[in-house]
Amino acid sequence: MDNENLQESSNKGFSEPAVRRLPVYHHYLVKVHEAGGIFISSTQIAADLNLVQVQVRKDLEFTGLEGKPKIGYEVTALLKAIEVFLGWDKINPAILAGAGHLGNALLGYQGFKEYGLNIVAAFDSDFVKIGKLIHGKPVYSIDFMEKYIQEHNTEIGILTAPAQYAQDLADKMINAGIKAIWNFAPARITADKPDIIIQHESLASSFAVLSKKINSNINK
Fold this sequence. Notes:
CATH class of the largest domain: Alpha Beta
CATH architecture of the largest domain: 3-Layer(aba) Sandwich
Distance between the termini: 50 Å
CATH superfamily of the largest domain: NAD(P)-binding Rossmann-like Domain
């Protein structure tokens, strides 16, 4: 299946739980490919990742690639299909608002480019940071953010600012043309435009789940 057909298949809809598992499959398949693997079955993937085979097969169906009977999937083709489905086959530039500790860490993470994300600039209100480079990325005044978004047609914004500034910064991003916000701020943000995508990441919620699981195991 060529790129055009893979892209068409990737636009037919998706299951969010499946999308969350696809990077796990991709990481696994990279290792299989590096080890010289040519074909892989959903049964083998399920066994190695301790998942249910039917679930793996249904997840991979979203990519539009079909496995061959008794052979399975060609590893390189399946890797490509996952990358096209997730949009990792192209680089999406993004800006970041809030160059504090978390923002600094995200700016320094080199793995984003492997997944099609390139943070090209950061914005902050701290004069000590403005005009500097953080991990090679320029830091501009937050007052320049909207103009930058408009001039560079940027569509992805990453929000790592304190809670009290989150909604105001989100509104400014959206008004300037941002189409999707990855929100790491400890606050829920909303958009007054229905086509705006907001993905909330809550460190507190994630740790709450981990903490509950730990305490449940201890109390058994």
